Amino acid sequence: METVIPVHLPQHPYQISICPGGLRQIGLLMAERAALTPGQRVLVVANPNVFRYYGDAVAAALTQAGFSVFDCLLPAGERYKTLKSVQKIYDAALAHRLERGSAIVALGGGVIGDMAGFAAATWLRGIPVVQVPTSLLAMVDAAIGGKTGVNHPQGKNLIGAFHQPRLVLIDPETLQTLPKREFRAAIAEVIKYGVIWDVELFEQLEAAPRLDQLRSLSPELLLEILVRSCRAKAEVVGKDEREAGLRAILNYGHTIGHAIEALTHYRVFNHGEAVGLGMLAVGELAVELGYWSRECADRQANLIQKAHLPNRIPPQLNPDQVIESLQADKKVQSGHVRFVFPTGIGAVKLVDQVPSDAIARALRKLQVS
Amino acid sequence: METVIPVHLPQHPYQISICPGGLRQIGLLMAERAALTPGQRVLVVANPNVFRYYGDAVAAALTQAGFSVFDCLLPAGERYKTLKSVQKIYDAALAHRLERGSAIVALGGGVIGDMAGFAAATWLRGIPVVQVPTSLLAMVDAAIGGKTGVNHPQGKNLIGAFHQPRLVLIDPETLQTLPKREFRAAIAEVIKYGVIWDVELFEQLEAAPRLDQLRSLSPELLLEILVRSCRAKAEVVGKDEREAGLRAILNYGHTIGHAIEALTHYRVFNHGEAVGLGMLAVGELAVELGYWSRECADRQANLIQKAHLPNRIPPQLNPDQVIESLQADKKVQSGHVRFVFPTGIGAVKLVDQVPSDAIARALRKLQVS
Q: Best interface-test mutation with A: which of B41, B82, B124 has the largest number of A CBs within 10 A?
């Protein structure tokens, strides 16, 4: 049972394949769908944990399809998403003589996907990359759309490139090994797609008895979540590859989320948790400024609570620091922070001029309980 | 007196402006031709030598046109073309809060252009860059076509990205401060355009009384050299932005040239000198394998000699090492080195299967005098 979602980019169209057991067919899929030539070299980039689970299966499937397989293991965690880690991929690329027709396979979560994608974007000025996300967050977000990059010591994702994958292969079976906290964090992004794009997805999440762990989801709901989230991302990216306009709506909750992540040194919240907090903050802001109804904001808050995601900002986090940090965010346009405000369920609007004191009030609301 | 050469790229067309005194108009040109908005931030990247000569004029012209100007100075020399130097540009970009509408101005030779271009390609996943080449080599080659990048400790230009400039501004007056050795090295690339693309340029070079220093060229010949070289590069790039086919002809002499540069640790020959040697070697190879006439190869050798470019490879350089180094070059396709062979003056052919022993013989010919 495979579901294929096309990403319609005129320069480099590709497919998202959602396929239980798909890891074991990766070699064939790469030859057939990604226009890669068996005989070529493939560098599998992963962290040691993920590689222990899936490395052998992937390497075997690639070897069987005729590829020459090498691997490059990098330490796990957002704080290793640095140029230094990318340099290790470059060293492996050189050692294993990757050529322009060789490929990098990014096997893992968003951190690995971003770094392996950036290395592929910049090795020999660009070699093919196949994204094989093994976390729910990477499946529904990072693996699709070609954003790659690493963090600067003073800001997330400041260094990067657009580099579309040749193929995104999603094997839901890999989610069995996903830690619960990672699962919940991803649900924040799924809720985001509901708010910004897909009211039916939002309602399906509302109808689910629980959202806090994978095994409490029915297989049908999990598939719906994957397919609808990937489709939302693919549709938005297909209309705006380079974030000239529409694609900015995917940043709903992210601008404040990034600031919260950075100010807590990426140690308190993971990405999805921070995005959840950002969505709550922006939701409050949108209500205060008259863009969104209190009822919609409460429905969003209920879903976030149902996913057991954090819904309070640590009291020691100073809202003024958050606002200052927003200024350094790369979405800043001429000094103004651009916000994505929901205007309904499945509908949003970009707003440029948001008063700092309103932002501070919204943040403070999330500090008192 | 301005000559404008268009670069016809459907996604991002731009102009090469060859304009004596153009540095003093850079602000206006950037606003008018590069679609950059006065009021925005501009980071001028240069080395201290070039900045001492032209920094003030450029900063004044940008300020006068309404831009906010900052600078980032990097040490001069190919051996500083590293990720470490690029990180300094990132730090400056962060310190001066470059946004997506901000621009980087690459003021200098090819090293600065490549690094500043790569930083622009990868900061916030791509911000505008304006190339202002101040060396003849950068004017006729590196500044045009969007190739950016840095060296890996074990190979030249292995890390990089395609990132087209918004504008290339060539002010021939900056050549007055160019060291003689740099001038000669650039003439190697000019001769290359004659061999691969423009027989009239080749014949004009043959007709010149001298080619070894700038002041022995007539102003008319200098302009012809600039215009015809830039046009050749623009035409080739316009037909093949990403080096899928035709653009490979620009690498004539470069594959062996890169190997010679690398094996002499970038200390014996500069880029142009190494390319000159590469052209001589490939010329011999093309004659031996029956692609080129002895007469054409001698005409090329005469021009290289007239430019006082090196025409002998150091005896301690082992041809076998050169051949091994070719294997690590990024133009390698499935283990085969691709050569650009001249077939006349102004005409070339790509050849994939070249016997190693023939390469070694051609190199040895250049070692004995």
A: B124
